[in-house]
Design a protein that fits this description.
Blueprint: E1 13-18, E2 21-25, E3 28-32, E4 35-40, E5 43-47, H1 55-64, E6 74-76, E7 95-97, E8 101-104, E9 107-110, E10 117-119, E11 122-126, E12 135-141, E13 144-148, H2 167-178, E14 183-185
């Protein structure tokens, strides 16, 4: 996709349902993805629906914004690691989007994600790095573009992703995202506005 085509502002609304984390505790490793709700007109999108510590708390966060699970029209997987995907079935009518297809009921609709529009203000772009298949969801809001992505785990990085097979490819994807987004919603942390300290 020619990223110059994507608007810098738009009608999407972005809310964080859960800020992600990845931490060691005495009982083991706890991992939760950042779960994001994006709305634009009749399109209601959940990006990376889990893992989460409590499904009830996730659904309560959704309900607090006036959305029921059956009203979610689309789910986006930034990539296929289970900590970002396992709660997809909470949303019974949603189409699921990944890097190469849309899954709708029993239909597998092949398409490349790069440039795919979910609405006038929501687009997918290919951003390989954390995995070769990673995609980023761009949402143009009245206050600028938000990017839901695993190009960063958190605002601090890490600068070199321990899972990335190609750090140069990750750096190129980060540059592509930074050229577009005012706000980054990373894979395992709170949203942040990038600055000179943001890992490239």
């Amino acid at each position: 996709m020619d990223t110059t085509e994507f608007p810098q502002t738009g009608s999407a609304r972005v809310d964080i349902l859960q800020s992600g984390y990845a931490r060691e505790e005495t009982d083991g490793e706890h991992v939760g993805s950042t779960v994001t709700l994006i709305r634009d007109g009749d399109v209601v999108v959940v990006v990376d629906p889990g893992m989460v510590s409590s499904r009830q708390e996730l659904l309560a966060a959704l309900a607090s914004l006036g959305v029921q699970p059956g009203e979610v029209t689309d789910i986006v997987f930034s990539h296929h690691h289970p900590d970002h995907t396992v709660n997809a079935a909470l949303f019974p009518i949603a189409r699921i989007h990944d890097h190469w297809a849309i899954y709708d009921g029993d239909m597998w609709i092949s398409r490349e994600a790069d440039g795919h529009a979910l609405s006038g203000s929501i687009r997918l772009i290919a951003t390989p790095g954390h995995t070769p298949e990673d995609i980023t969801t761009l949402a143009a809001t009245p206050d600028g573009v938000h990017a839901c992505t695993h190009a960063w785990w958190t605002a601090e990085g890490p600068a070199d992703d321990p899972f990335a097979p190609d750090q140069e490819l990750l750096s190129a994807s980060r540059a592509r995202i930074l050229a577009l987004a005012r706000v980054i919603i990373p894979g395992h942390g709170p949203a942040f506005e990038p600055d000179s300290s943001t890992p490239r």
